[in-house]
Each structure stands twice: as structure tokens, then as C-alpha cells.
Design brief:
Radius of gyration: 18 Å
Distance between the termini: 28 Å
CATH class: Alpha Beta
CATH topology: Rossmann fold
Number of helices: 10
Helix content: 25-40%
Shape: globular
Strand content: 15-25%
CATH superfamily: Alpha/Beta hydrolase fold, catalytic domain
Order of helices and strands: EEEEHEHEHHHHHEHEHH
Largest sheet: 8 strands, mixed
Number of domains: 1
Length: 277
């Protein structure tokens, strides 16, 4: 498996799928390895996917200093990967919690980003609020599903601050809650480093005002791909994020949840490949 040595001597692994122009892919979690990406619904037929395993996950080495799991410090790992691949500018795709890292990288190294794809993005690095009301309104779109009553009750408790059963609301993150999707969802916990996830957003990791200011000058085209029924990043929130990038293009994938390549691979690949080309 290919690997490179980052700035502090930590050996980091990545997986390569497909051929052609490289597309660096940063997984979410946060601090989950890239296995759950698969081949991003077949995107590997269009690009050479460079699937990064963040430090402490997958085949990547555990760092000596746990403080290096902090999101702003992970930017140096992305830059080390770019140098390792000998890319002057790169196309960068990220998902969910990993979009915080992609955004911080773009803010710090704007001239190294050719195109940026933010899939069902997180909002922490940019300081955008997701209200409980926005999540409830999105969830109500699924009212006809057989699992809805129990899942919605759990969500209402979470929003009210009286419940914490996030597993019960898992069905809201997918367009369908069949056995294959349930198995896919259950596999995620096996690939996340909980210690690293706790350090990812530690004090000092994010400075939303500074990041917004830096991104206002970003000249790279940006695709924000939201899922129509995504509880994590409702389309209204993705639309607000899009206003922070000069070259933003917002696409809401119909019927998709938080993992649009899983929900409708063909539509996801068509949208993403067209943007990258």
C-alpha cells in the first residue's frame, strides 16, 4: 500500500483506485479511515482516486503526539500528500467532517487547489449554525417511512436536550433503510478513531472569521453537494455555506441523505465528474 512520511515523521497511508487525473479524497467521521468511501459509487471510472487514511486510522501510523489530531494541524498532512504526489495544484474532494479539513487547507493554501468538492459538508470550520428546527423540518420529509415514528421521537428528544440516542436516528441519514444500508451504517464505527475524533475539534482548531476572510479570495471553483433529506447538513444550511465561496456551485441531490454516492451512485458520479471536468 502506498504511503508517505508527513512533517513530523508519521507515516500515512493512502489507497489508489482508478486511473487518470488524481482526485485527493478526505474522509469524514471525523477521523475515520477511507474504507467507507468504496469507489465513491464508481467515480474511479473518471478519476484516479487518492483515498487518504488520516493519521491514526486505517493503515496510517498513530502519531507520537495526540495533539496532532487537531483539524488545523492536519492541514500539514494534506500538504505533505500533495508534495509526495508532486502536484502543483490538486482537485480535492471531502465528505462530512472531512470538509472542515478541506476548507482549512483551501484557506491556507488557496493556490494549491484547482477544484474543491464538499460533499454534505460539516459547518464547524465556517461557524454556520444548524438549528434543531432545520433538522426537524428535514426529518419530516420522511414521514411516510415505517421507521419514522421511533426515529423522529428520538430526534425530538435530542433537539430538546433530553435524549442522546443518535443511533436511533441513523435511518434519516440515508435514502433507504434496507438491510444493505443498515450493514453499511453499522460498519462505520469500526473504522473511526474515537481518541482522534475527540481531539479533532479541540480548542484552537477553528477560527471561523479568519477562515471566511481567507476563502473570500479563493478563486477555485467549489461544488457543494447536499442531500435533499440529509439530516446532518440540510440543503438550507448548504445554501448558506455556498454564499461564503466566490466560485460556489450548489447542487442538491434529490432523495439523497448524508452519503449520496451510496443512495444514488449514478447521479452522484454524473454530478461530480461533470464538475471536475
Amino acid at each position: 500500500m502506498p504511503a508517505f512520511t508527513s512533517y513530523d515523521g508519521t507515516d500515512l497511508a493512502y489507497h489508489v483506485l482508478g486511473e487518470g487525473v488524481p482526485l485527493i479524497c478526505l474522509p469524514g467521521g471525523p477521523m475515520q479511515d477511507s474504507a467507507y468511501f468504496g469507489d465513491l459509487g464508481g467515480l474511479s471510472a473518471h478519476r484516479r482516486l487518492i483515498m487518504a487514511d488520516p493519521r491514526g486510522t486505517g493503515r496510517s501510523e498513530t502519531p507520537r503526539d495526540p495533539a496532532t489530531y487537531r483539524c488545523d494541524r492536519l492541514v500539514d498532512d494534506v500538504e505533505a500528500l500533495r508534495r509526495h504526489l508532486d502536484l502543483d495544484r490538486m482537485d480535492l474532494l471531502s465528505h462530512s467532517g472531512g470538509t472542515n479539513l478541506a476548507v482549512l487547507y483551501a484557506a491556507r493554501h488557496p493556490h494549491r487547489v484547482r477544484r474543491l468538492v464538499l460533499v454534505t459538508p460539516s459547518v464547524r470550520a465556517l461557524g454556520v449554525e444548524i438549528t434543531g428546527q432545520a433538522r426537524l423540518e428535514t426529518a419530516r420529509l420522511r414521514e411516510g417511512e415505517p421507521w419514522f415514528p421511533a426515529a423522529f421521537a428520538a430526534l425530538e428528544a435530542i433537539v430538546a436536550g433530553t435524549g442522546h440516542d443518535w443511533t436511533a436516528v441513523d435511518p434519516f441519514y440515508y435514502s433507504r433503510w434496507d438491510p444493505a444500508t443498515q450493514a453499511y451504517a453499522a460498519s462505520h464505527d469500526e473504522h473511526r478513531n474515537d481518541e482522534a475524533a475527540a481531539a479533532f475539534g479541540a480548542d484552537g482548531a477553528f477560527d471561523p472569521d479568519a477562515t471566511r476572510t481567507a476563502l473570500a479570495a479563493l478563486d477555485a471553483p467549489v461544488l457543494l453537494l447536499a442531500g435533499e433529506v440529509d439530516l446532518n447538513t440540510p440543503p438550507s444550511v448548504a445554501a448558506e455555506l455556498a454564499t461564503l465561496f466566490p466560485g460556489a456551485h450548489l447542487v442538491v441531490q434529490p432523495g439523497a441523505g448524508h452519503f449520496p454516492w451510496h443512495d444514488d451512485a449514478g447521479r452522484f458520479v454524473a454530478t461530480t465528474a461533470a464538475f471536475l471536468d
